Amino acid sequence: MTSTTIACFITPHGFGHATRASAVIAAVQRRDPAVRFELFTSAPRWLFEQSLDQPFGYHELAADIGLAQRNSLHEDIPETVRRLDAFLPFRPAHVETLARQVNALGCAMVLCDIAPLGIAVAQAAGLPSVLVENFTWDWIYEGYAECAPVLRPHIETLRAVFASADRHVQTEPVCAYTRSDLLTAPVCRSLRLAPNQVREKLDIPASAPVVLITMGGLSSTDQHAFFDQLAAWPQYRFVIPGGDTAATAGNVLRLPNHSAFYHPDIMRAADAVVGKTGYSTVAEAYHAGLPYGYVSRPRFRESGVMERYIQAHMRGIAFGEEEFRSGAWLKRLPDLLALGRMARDAPNGAEQIADFLLSLRQ
């Protein structure tokens, strides 16, 4: 690589991939602040502004379809198929336009967090591509192909695109191991504040057990039907990101996704996390060593992999969806907290990927 500009195509599916990409970008720029990133995604700009210290270019683009979702626990496969039909195969004129754009920006590499369009653009631009993934969409869609056979042509198209990446990085927890150039530890963003500083800002006593309830950036009132029950557990403080505004009611603090509080710092200041098994939540809880009350998503293929990883490398208790929605899990909260925090000295996969990317320009 002869330039210091990298194009980064990021899937907008949830917040986990945007935060994973942000963790990698920040790790690269800690090593070399002169490296500039041009982001191509429809993930919200504020998420990158919150995560990155150096300037970046932001180009709003539907870089990927991912999965349409009715809510954070349930997918909408018919809508996913409709969107894929409009997205694939890639329109050559669209790819060529984007290729000219990344060349005009002086990009010397294209980094893709499971956004296949970026790989096609890299090829058209004559640039090397680096795929970062713990799953690819063809693998995810295979889990629905029996009930939705119309997905099969898209699966084949995407499998070929992902296989054509010049470099391949897999990040634990990996859903389908394959030959890759680098296998890393879980990737998450670095901390900024000490836990006691975060608790002070949140007005939470140092001695109060804190439970973070997170659905990975997707939240609604129906997913927290147990909200009114939390007051019956005054010995705990509950922090729930994902609301529209910040609000405190007794022992419950609700925060909007776009708040002044940096999510990895909140995670580290907590004593347990409860929520779905999305990548960023698992990775952050892993590095924080937190006990995890994880909500199973049996239809989503990645969920089983995440659950097995938690069982093998973390401390946690599985909560069924109905148990979570009804609030029955609260009776098991003392058991979850009793698991305690694990000491963790594993490397952050973001640092491993940063070293790998910078080595490619030598």
Task: Using brief descriptors, characterize the structure shown.
362 residues; alpha/beta; seven-stranded parallel beta sheet; 20% strand; 2 domains; 38% helix; Rossmann fold; globular; seven-stranded mixed beta sheet
Q: What sequence of helices (H) and strands (E) makes up the elements?
A: EHEHEEEHHEHEHHEEHEEEEHEHEHEHHH
Quaternary class: single chain
CATH superfamily of the largest domain: Glycogen Phosphorylase B
Question: How many domains?
Answer: 2
Beta-strand level of the residues, as a percent range? 15-25%
Query: Any low-confidence stretches, pLDDT <50, length ≥5?
Result: none
Quickly give the structural class.
Answer: alpha/beta
Tell me how many strands there are: 16
CATH class label of the largest domain: Alpha Beta
Helix content: 25-40%
Distance N terminus to C terminus? Answer: 7 Å
Main-sheet strand order equals: 3-2-1-6-7-8-9
* CA-based shape: globular
From the alpha carbons, calculate the radius of gyration and give it in angstroms.
20 Å
CATH architecture of the largest domain: 3-Layer(aba) Sandwich
Count of helical regions: 14
Largest sheet report: 7 strands, parallel
Written account of the structure:
The chain has two domains: 5-185 and 348-359, 3-Layer(aba) Sandwich (Rossmann fold); 195-338, Rossmann fold (3-Layer(aba) Sandwich), CATH 3.40.50. The chain has 362 residues and is of the alpha/beta class. The chain has helices at 16-31, 45-51, 77-87, 92-104, 116-125, 137-142, 152-163, 195-202, 263-269, 279-288, 301-313, 321-326, 333-338, 349-359; strands at residues 5-10, 36-41, 57-60, 69-71, 74-75, 110-113, 129-133, 167-171, 182-184, 210-214, 237-243, 247-249, 252-256, 272-276, 292-295, 316-319. It is globular. α1 (16-31) packs across α14 (349-359), α4 crosses α5 and α8 packs across α9 (263-269).
